[in-house]
Amino acid sequence: MELASDVLCQCDCELVLMIFEYLMCRHEAKCIEVIVDTVLERLHQDVSNLNISNVNGNLIGIEARKQGLISAFELGFDGVCMVGIWGVGGGGKTTLASSVYDDISSNFDSCCFIKNVREGSCNKDGLERLQEKILCGVLKQEQVHVTRVEEGKHMIRLRLCHKKVLIVLDDVDHLDQLEALAGSGNWFGEGSRIIITTRDQHLLVAHRVNVIHNICLLNDDEATNLFRKHAPRNGRPIEDYELLSKVVVYYAGGLPLALRILSSFLCDKEMNEWRSALARLKEIPYANILEVLKISFDGLTKVEKELFLDIARFFGRGFKIERAMLILDACGFHPLRGIKVLVQKALITITEDGEFDMHDLVQELAHYIVRGEHPKNPEKHSRIWKKEDVLKIYAMDATMADDSDMLLPETNEMDYYNSVTRLDCGTSHGYDQTADSDDEDEDGDTRLNPVPKEAEKNDRIDREILKMLEKGKNKVEMEVVDQMETMEDRIVNRMKGFLHERIDRLEDKMVERMDMLENRMMKMEGIVVKRMERLTNKTVEMEGGVVQRIERLTNKMVERMDMLENRVGDVDK
Prior knowledge:
The chain has helices spanning about 1-10, 10-25, 30-55, 60-75, 95-105, 115-120, 125-140, 150-160, 175-180, 200-205, 220-230, 240-250, 255-265, 270-285, 285-300, 300-315, 320-330, 335-345, 360-370, 385-400, 415, 460-570; strands spanning about 80-85, 110-115, 165-170, 195-200, 210-215, 350, 355. It is mainly α. Strand 3, helix 9 and strand 4 form a beta-alpha-beta unit. The protein is elongated and about 170 Å long. This is NB-ARC domain-containing protein.
């Protein structure tokens, strides 16, 4: 009753106006009907919001994430905004989208939440049925029939272009789904908001989504609270409960799905059953969790699948991407595009330091896929990384040898050593020549030394394996050294011969050039001498001519002086 009173108070202004309008027209019955409908609608909305608030209040860590996403919606903005939420499977994308949907749905004329788009589109006429769901949900009609995808696009665009709608498309995995259900912002009215959840960031980029939001996994405190909520202590010993809770939280790595599944599995178990179950997780991961994560893997191409398995197993977290690129490129993977796809699928990440990183359960997914249907038969695995599996394979093959005193022919020793499929010798997960036998890698896998110290010396097969591995290692080292020395000798000899040949040729050419230069100098000297002689002769001739001309000039001057003196004497007389 209190809630109804509050609703009536909130509706006073609107109701008064409606009552006045209908009473003026003397439509008392219509007036009563409108008043009842208005109050019931407001009452239903407030009750729904109250229930939603109670539900969302029980979601651990949702408030901060929700507020951050709602702020990106810009609800005051009149344009159409598409927001994408992407991340690893089981990370809480649907939960976040649902919580935001419940909080802001009252701001829109109509709302529609389409779940499991990926699964729905796989059915016969799947996209048409999804289009029908949108039209029915937004238009509040019981039935809408769509026969073709193009027809559905036209109907959505035509009938929703003037409506302010809120639509959630959950678990989208292909671009044609977005093009069929929310092809463009102009399909919807001003102020509409479209929320898309996906595991593939590339879809959001390709569809030109306005805002892309990366899902944030739970921190340790949030993960612990979520686990304790679903698997309370209920009288269990506090120390054991606290310790094993931390183990579960560490294993889940902040993944809400993993925490919910594991807590539901353990909630009714005794503490000794907890220990047994947790001890088995590393050996046989919980399939329900990995099957959810495997959906992203199934969407990869064959080459991308191989690339993911190699990165997850042989490189792993902390491995420099530049070095991995060189190795993968040399193996013919052309990894640049593939690594980009794996990042977009949220299967791996690249740190600021340029190193690979991935969720623990994603790495477990790779192990799960490699083991396949034969977890206890490593000889059937596509990749071998554990020391005990390598020893087991060698032991199995050793029993098939004809000669009981020699497991493997000496000549085929290294060929056999290389026969182990994808046996990695260049990373921290492969044969480590410097590590102690008790060292373990970050996944708990013991690294294999050239000579495993823990092998039983009284076991003949193990002794032969030790000899084989030691000989194999030594042979590899000797072959590498021999090859390097041979290569060095060849290079030096070839360089010496090349240099001697070039020097001889250079000397011959220099002698030829010197002879030619000497001949030219002699010719030049002869020419210069001849020209000097000619110049000397001409100079002598010129000197003789000059003397003669000076003598003639002197004689003429004497004659002129005599004539001048005679004339002066005549004048005086």
